[in-house]
Amino acid sequence: MLSGLNHLTLAVTDLNRSVNFYHQVLHLQIDATWDNGAYLSLPGLWLCLSLDPSRQSEPAAEYTHYAFTAAASDFPALVARLRAAKVQEWRDNRSEGASFYFLDPDGHSSKCTSAI
């Protein structure tokens, strides 16, 4: 029986750019780095960035994405920080509640959702 999700790995084309994005813009903690990868975390999530220069940095057209949660009181400031960093918006919010859909530097689809 599964007991949880161990980590999520994203293939990236520029490791330093991606580490900076997840650490500086989204405020994930850097836990470990090595020549071709890094582990970053939030409570309950390990994110592995793995260098893959052959990856295409174009977003997929489907709805596949990963989502982060932010406190309702922090949500407007988070969206403002993402927009100030010129993060590309991915799609309009069509779900209940406040959500901001965006792309990371390699075109991975993401969203931040306001906690209720």
Automatic annotation (TrEMBL):
Location of the VOC domain: 4-115
Any one Gene Ontology molecular-function term assigned to this protein's record: glutathione transferase activity
Key words of the record: Transferase
Signal peptide start-end: none
Top enzyme class: transferase
The keyword Transport belongs to this UniProt entry's keyword annotation: no
SUPFAM superfamilies, per the entry: Glyoxalase/Bleomycin resistance protein/Dihydroxybiphenyl dioxygenase
Keyword Transferase recorded: yes
EC number: 2.5.1.18
A Pfam match: Glyoxalase
Coiled coil: none
Gene3D superfamilies reported in the protein's UniProt record: 2,3-Dihydroxybiphenyl 1,2-Dioxygenase, domain 1
Record InterPro entries: Glyas_Bleomycin-R_OHBP_Dase, Glyas_Fos-R_dOase_dom, VOC_core
Name of the featured protein: Glutathione transferase FosA
